[in-house]
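sanity check this:
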Amino acid sequence: MDPAVSAPDRWTKATVHPDMWLDADDDPREVDGPSAEGERATLVDYLRNYRLTLLLKCEGLDAEQLARRSVPPSTLSLLGLLRHLAEVERDWRNWITTGDPEPGLYGEPDGDFDGAVGEDDVVAAAYADLAREQAATDAALAAWEDLSEHVGRERIAVRDLMVHRIEEYARHCGHADLLRECVDGRVGQ
């Protein structure tokens, strides 16, 4: 399919603001009450919201749609992004460990994207891998109260790692915006 020839019609679930992904009342990123207090809580809140954004961009698609490489010859797909971010979470955890690093999840370089095929078991494994790796990295970072502490073999500051994670998810959420629009025309922040 040539996306330039048969691009899907643009649409959104939002009824109030057409540039939004969905209405604020339905958005899990919207929370009542005051914003996060303190540096760690703010960083964790931003990371949470970008993680949710990525999941929202993948929501409602079948395995083939998630694996669709919408911008050939790139191997980038929504499923590939899920797998890539699981791999990256493990890499970041390896940076802060003092023990032997855990092996990569998907084998050779680019295995996260190359192996993102439209099969239900691959999709289920990607979601499970991402949740597991996020939880493990979150737990590892929670062990350090001082965000300026330099940890692991790489002697990276906890703050730097937390900000880097936010940057990685934010960048890939931008990719997810474009990929999703190519798949079914859905748009919004």
